[in-house]
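for the record, two folds in this file. i put them one after another cuz i was lazy. first one right below, seq on top, structure tokens after. the second one comes after a little note so u can tell where it starts
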Amino acid sequence: MNKLLSWPAALCWLTVLLDGYDLVVLGAVIPTLIDENHIGFTAASATFAATISLVGVAIGAAGVGPLADRYGRRRVLLASIALFSVFTIAVPWAGSVGVFGAFRLLAGLGLGACMPTALTFMAEHMPPTRRAFASTFTMTGYHAGAVLASLLALWLVPDWEILFYAGGVAGLLLLPLMWRKLPESDAYLQARDKTERVKPTVVLQPRYLRTTLGVWVGSFMGLLLVYGLNTWLPKLMRDAGYNMSTSLTLLLVLNIGAIIGLVVAGILADRRGTKPIILVWFAAAAVLLALLSVKVSGTVALNALVLVTGIFVFSAQVLVYAYVTQAYPAEVRATALGLTAAVGRLGAIFGPSITGALIVSGSAHPWGFYFFAAVAALGLIALATVPRLARHDDPPAEPARTGRDDLKEYAT
């Protein structure tokens, strides 16, 4: 518990908070941008803006792993936050949809690098017996940021520009604190010599291939859900007949549920094993997303359904990251997590794009929720194929030479 109250834990949590804030901020302002036809925004161009943002995030996540494994977690994290902050502040100054998208793309490069680096650092900051909780606890910052963005949107919209200024300035204010208080990861320092000899493609070697493919597909499906819902839930609920205030409130409730789910999922995963909890969480998410297609008349019942959906949908994705931090050695951990996040960000691109296409065609409700339920089911199937890790065990640093050696690490 003392490690969770330390400066490194707090700074990693705040870093991930910026990611969560940015996740919701565009979805919260899209209805206003479209209604006001700001610099020519339509439903189609809003889909472009959401998509191009996530392209940048995916590129940033894919590229950061080898850099963090080679040059250290600390320097890469500082540079990533700086890049995100500068171009987030620039977004309201965009004079066209194209420039708006370019600023979001560049901010996304920095943002995409932040989360996998912060999660890698936290996994190495905590003992192996607490690694699942380290990941889920850190990711509560993600949804705290989403809740913060939702609250500010309820207060500030239609003055949407302030939301972007606030996110960028917060990042710039975080930098000097991180410079003084964030040390380099001990695990990175110990594995630094090995890192120089290890190629990123090690995650595709036979020993890890089954794990890598499973977590990549699971991450793709998980982030498709997270971004699809956070980007378009207000619009989906408006199409379902709810008013704008109710729709934004449900986005807030969804992310409060996510915070609750992350705490519970991390505790259970450390006690029962990460893989079994992942499967339960994806299965519950599939059922609850399908239920959201049903029009609920009572406010309390509607909020309760959305809250429970948030508990399972978002923490299912984070449990994939927790699994990755346990499945790979320190010298390739950031690479493995960065690539998993990058593949997930591709799902994040498809989520808003497909949902946006359904909205443009006028068929988002109820088919949007049926689509999300099917995605959760596919995530369940993918994660069912990965090995069950031996609990509380770090995998050996050197690749196993035989199938019998693999069994020493993984419980089948």
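(here's the note) second protein begins now
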Amino acid sequence: MSSATGSRLTPADLRRLDDVSTGLAATAARFDRTGEFPHESIQLLHEAGLLTAGVDPRYGGYGATFTEVAKILLALGRGDPSTALIAGMTIVPHLLQTRSPWPEEVYARVLAESAERPTLLNHARAEPDMGSSTRGGLPATVAHRTANGWSIRGRKRFVTGAEGLSYFLVWAATDEPSPRVGNFVVPAGTPGIEIVPTWHQLGMRATGSHEVVFTDVEIPAEYVHELAAPGAPPAPGTLPGSITLLLSSSLYLGVARAAQGYVHTFGHERVPSTLGRPLATTDRFRQAAGEIETLLTSAEQLIFGVADRVDRGLPVRGADALASKVVVVRHVTTAVQTGVRLLGNPGLAQSNPLERHFRDIQSVGVHAPGEDAALQAVGATALAVGAPRD
């Protein structure tokens, strides 16, 4: 990456992203097949400086913009979306540090470790009995105040990259008379943490999004992020969470672009004896290719349009980002499905990457909030504009 004081992503940086994407693609099928944690892929990203690309210059970092992070995640998703998702969970908190800061002492420790080795972060929010935290309610995970700090007890599920994380950001409620909720920063390796291998999915198999049990896990008092009363308004300068969710969708755009690449290659190389020329020269193939490109170009414009507005300091409503996310999810999913239908049986053969891309893209709509919740929020905002005034 360019220096923190230099200009934005240069052509050399973009070529390096292509190299990283190619490196990830070389092992993606193996990690998908085995479901093992992609340690060597994460090491590759660490050595390329991508895990800390979002660290602000005031902390000695490069200071990637939202647009640049979207480009990074797109490139990583094109190579190996499981690795991209694990990496994204680390890149985004660094990107948001100036807007939603961790305690300075804790963040300084994270940066020091990040300089030496891959230091992965991720939120632990979802719970077996609660479902998605975006639908409201207090977490069952409890933080109890002790003489030296906090004691955390609870069970979380779908914790992406669980076995490779350096820090868990555990969403929990205090057991105070008036409960507060927040993210408790739990270093991996702290006694009382158990990773339960429950991740056996159709796609995104190497994310290792297992369940994690926290049993009386002790952390220092200052290892808390955004502790506040339930429903308290966000701090000034905090971005709507829907913006970072849309940003994360760019890795699935990378999946769809990889699928598109394989469809194009197949079309150029496949020459049926009855046709005597490549499939790519037929009207049917060209029309399908045009449909795929139109879907993906539109999705790309939505993602980068919102990212650009954030970078320029322009207001972005949470509802607008949610609406964009709904459309992006639909477009990338349809694009890959169109490619599979176009190729027929070869599109579902495990001997080529399109079958894996098809499985991986199914996960894009699973990330909270679901389409129903997103549309309800967008609809409520739209209806409020024309609501009768008292």
